[in-house]
Amino acid sequence: MAISLAEAKAHLRVVHTTDDAYIESLIEAALAYVTEVGVAIATPIQPPVRQAAYMLISHFYENRDATSDSPSTAVTFGVSALTAPYREHSI
After folding, report:
1. Structural domain boundaries, residue 50
2. pTM, rounded to two decimals
3. Domain tally, the chain
């Protein structure tokens, strides 16, 4: 996995194990989203792409229920800005 459970928990500042399975699902969802918008995840993962995934993981963890029709503008902008240089473009 491009982001480990331990890395995600450190980013979230979570020390308990109660949410481990949930956090693992958030890692998968964040990386799937990044891939879905056209970013090829390298090995090792590119630092800006890693930060974008961390932003998504944090957003998902802190907002378990949909609070509005769209995500925070800051999250949307940050993820877009961080991943833009890594998006695959078709000619």
Report:
1. 5-86
2. 0.86
3. 1
